[in-house]
Hints:
The protein has 521 residues and is an all-beta fold. The strands form eleven sheets. Strands 2, 3, 5, 6 and 7 form a five-stranded antiparallel sheet that branches. Strands 10, 11, 13, 14 and 15 form a five-stranded antiparallel sheet that branches. The protein is globular, with a radius of gyration of 26 Å.
Amino acid sequence: MKRFLPVAVCLCCGLAPAQDDRAAIEGQVLNGVTGEPLKKTAVTLQTIGSTRGQPTVTVTDAGGQFAIQDIDPGRYVLSAERNGFVRQSYGSRSSNRPGTTLTLERGKRVTDIVIKLMPQGVITGRIVDEDNDPIFNVTVQTLRYGYTQGKRQLVPASAEQSNDLGEYRIHGLPAGKYYVIATVRNRPGEESYPSVYYPGASDPTTAIQVDVAAGSEVRGIDMTLSRAHTVRVRGKIPDLPRGTGVRLIPRGSMVSFMGGWQMAQITSQEGDFELRGVTPGSYMMVVDFQRSFRQPLEVGKADIDGITIAIPPAANIEGQIRVDGQGDINLGILSLQLPLRDPMPVGTPASPVKPDGSFGIENLAPDTYDVNVSGLPAGYYLKSASLSGQDVLDSGLTIAGGTAKLELVVSPAGGQVEGAVVDAKQQPAQAATVVLIPEVARQSRRSLFKTASTDQNGHYSIQGIAPGDYAIYAFEDLPPGAFQDPDFMKPFERSGQSLTLREGGHESSQLQQIPADEIQF
């Protein structure tokens, strides 16, 4: 069989290695259900741990074959996607799991790679009112349980709008169980329809999950929306322009799905706004302008009229990043990020760092933020963040207004841990997820949690680790983000190994993989 051999795009800049020093890969993409070869599949090779260059992309031939030549030695991830199928990484157990890291050595060819793509699942249905009339432009969304910021909660999968017949079709779904929620954007002057979970529940605790098999189309997921008792929230937000957005988000909701949200805009120079169709409950009111301001709001069974929201003065951050020791780094590739310590879906303030290391963020809402620096080269870590001489890495950055001076230090002397993972048969475990978890006292700093996937030889490596005490684990299958949830990790406490990493330290840890059948999703 003749193979399709495209010309690979160089993944890094600078002088290319000699031809004999390059690596190559060959493989095939198959239908994960039928085993048939998949032609016209886009295969992407992406380097790990580099901010330079573009990924290499090629397309499979009629036999599902692909080959990429002239690859610089290094560590890569390989993935494939095709219309009608769910995107998949090589070696991964499902679409949202990390795959096998490919370690490509100088002058070596990796062959017989097989990627099995699973056909997409589809959910269809119809949205009607209590008179069985279709409702147009309803947001219908699928939700699954996942982990966000260390908490298990419903997270969005996919969404579509109902058409003029009330019909909807949600495609591109990986196999699994989903909650389906229908939400109407109630507008002023219209009757109010509360959100409904399939088949007609007001919250997921009494809803029925929809089981979607690979390649299946689940039909008849119909929902009837009925008018219910809702209230109106009216008030003023002085000194903000017309068109400024106002949102009500249920308390405890950290994800961006549409269910339960209510939205409005300021409609007058005096700052008037009106939210209709609000069901009683606990909310966070979010005002979106140059920044996002939030405050809690309790809604009972009666309308709320005449509330006035006073927006506090904005805060600004100015500062400088410097490198500790002899590190050589282009500071202009870095970015300062300030995620909220108590997260809500209001965005993360960020600022690019200038080549001289200076940065600035304006119009910050007074709040408590974590301090992160993204774009650091391999081996670097954020060593300190100082506000008026006080380190705020562990406590969080609390600002109340005015201009704050933030001094950051990054160091090239991050710790490193590497080793190998074996399965129950003491064979190298490919695509195992290795997680590094900081001691309890520092777990509020999400950036200290580290993860890596094993390569085709069962090897892993984690770099840029801040000094301190950690526990390290290896899982055959792990829901994304689950390792940041203490409740999830509790049953596995005895399966981990303790590590103490000093600045510039290099540790080795050989790990036994925790089997997938011991993990409760």
